[in-house]
Amino acid sequence: MLKIIIVAIISAVLFVGCGNNIDLNDEIDKAKEIAGEKAKEIIQDKLEESEQLKVLKDYYTFIQNRVNEDEILNFLKENIQGMDEFRVDEMLLNLENHLMVKGYDTKGILEKIAPYIQNASDELRSYFRIWEVEVEEEVTDGEKLNLPVYKIIDRAIAVEEHIEKYPDGKTKDKLKELYISYIKLSTQGLGNPYIFADEGESHIKDEILQSYKDTIQNYPDSITAEVLRGYLEDLEKDNMELNGNNVYYFYENVDRIINGLI
Known about the structure:
3 domains; 13 helices; about 70% helix
């Protein structure tokens, strides 16, 4: 069936070129180019449904029995080309969880999964790209913020755009947690919002306020903008002081606020 589809794509291009002097190989190359990554996927023979289910069953047995990850990766390498995209997604997400339980950090997980991401769906490729960005330049080392507020908010916007593109996706819940973390880090730091005030002061810095206002202006219809608008309103009620009652209310309820929007 898949071979028929790729032949149909090629035939369509050749049909358009009928009556002209054409180079067959050139036209086939054009067809593959038009099809893009889908052509790569279609050209490959997929396993029959029953065979794919058997591969999945064996794979999940490896995962459940906590088999050595090298064995799992070898099994994945041998079978992944024959699996449908949505099943590749399942396999990679299960592998991610398995490696997490084994104690791998995000960088280690990505290194193991990287060779197989090309076989996954657009959603999974986008999901792992978000984590790649985080690994390349971590927002925090656990003791301090490594990025300015506006860059942390940019990370939140990128996650929001992914969730908006795949609202019912299999990665939504995991990225929602990351999104909430980015919002908290950009408004509270690591639990000490006074890092966003001058030393010995509780009044929020103008540059931090400007980062919030720029986001609202540049992404007015985003969830991030809505959250920050609410935060600014609370700050204004407290005369821009980071220790006011309204601001504390925001900090204590930000999870609930975001969960009501996403």
